[in-house]
Amino acid sequence: MAFDIEMIKKVYATMPERVNKARELVGRPLTLTEKILYNHLWEGNPTQVFSRGKDYVDFAPDRVACQDATAQMALLQFMHAGKSKVAVPTTVHCDHLIQAKVDAATDLARAKQQSSEVFDFLSSVSNKYGIGFWKPGAGIIHQVVLENYAFPGGMMIGTDSHTVNAGGLGMIAIGVGGADAVDVMSGMAWELKFPKLIGVKLTGKLSGWTAPKDVILKVAGILTVKGGTGAVVEYFGEGATAMSCTGKGTICNMGAEIGATTSTFGYDESMARYLRSTNRADVADAADAIAPYLTGDPEVYANPEQYFDQVIEINLSELEPHLNGPFTPDLATPISKMREEAIKNNWPLRVEIGLIGSCTNSSYEDISRAASLAKQVADKKLKTKAAFTITPGSEVVRSTIERDGFIDTFNQIGATVFANACGPCIGMWDREGAEKEERNTIVHSFNRNFSKRADGNPNTLAFVGSPELVTALAIAGDLGFNPITDTLINEDGEEVKLDEPTGNELPAKGFYAEDPGYQAPAEDGSGVTVAVSPTSERLQLLAPFEPWDGNNITGAKLLIKAFGKCTTDHISMAGPWLRFRGHLDNISNNMLIGAINAFNQKANSVKNQLTGAYDAVPAVQRAYKAAGIPSIVVGDHNYGEGSSREHAAMEPRFLGVKAVLVKSFARIHETNLKKQGMLALTFANEADYDKIRENDTINFKDLTSFAPGVPLTLEFIHDDGTTDIILANHTYNEGQIAWFKAGSALNLIAAAGAA
Question: Do 667 and 261 form a contact (C-beta atoms < 8 A)?
Answer without folding.
Answer: yes
